[in-house]
Protein: Phosphatase 2A Regulatory Subunit A helical domain-containing protein
Organism: Xylaria hypoxylon
Amino acid sequence: MLKDEFPEVRLHIISKLELVNQVIGIDLLSQSLLPAIVQLAEDKQWRVRLAIIEYIPLLASQLGVKFFDEKLSGLCMGWLGDTVFSIREAATHNLKKLTEVFGVEWASEAIIPKVMAMGSHPNYLYRMTTCFAITTLATVVSLDVIGKSILPMLEKLVEDEIPNIRFNVAKTYTELVSVLKRLPDEGTIYSLEKAGKTDTPASPKSTELIQQRILPNLEKLQKDDDVDVRFFATTGAGGVPGAGGEPMNTSP
């Protein structure tokens, strides 16, 4: 049935992965699954591609990190450059769920460098996807990842020639401020919430990143030539403790 001509049939089998695994075993299952997954991942119908993306976290949890890194990682990163926005959006949420499955240390090595590299791509859609991915991943990455990997890329994108990139940078900074205000030195917002810790104060390092690495760039974007960039930068600066944000200048 994994070779059925109808993608819906193959998707149905994959959706029952846990039950199938109990019957035929993980080794045989992985050999049978891979060709079907690849075909579905490259299907010309974008809704089929979207459906297989939604099953990837289940596949990852059943097949393990080694199989994923060797066989599926490339597919997941490829979806970030899909021509359909819904696929790119789903792909960023997929990375978040995979980080929840495999952990932040895995993401720091397997995902974050590739996502950050897209921020230097000549095609602006890839750079835009980097902003979307950072916003989506913010709650599942650590303070160390934000400081060493994410903020350096955003500091480059602040100067991007495309206004849509710059206002998405401002929106991304806004999300990071929200995360950093609750992020301690160790762990992630996801791990804290999973443990029932919802009122943790920000660490001094988090506050330092906001004040020294984020706020100056939001202030720079508040003086941008584009009104939308100024609006989102002002909104973001307003969320910084003690900053308040300058009144927005909407004149050309």
User: Anything to note?
Assistant: The chain has two domains: 1-102, 103-252. The CA atoms of residues 3 and 36 lie 7 Å apart.
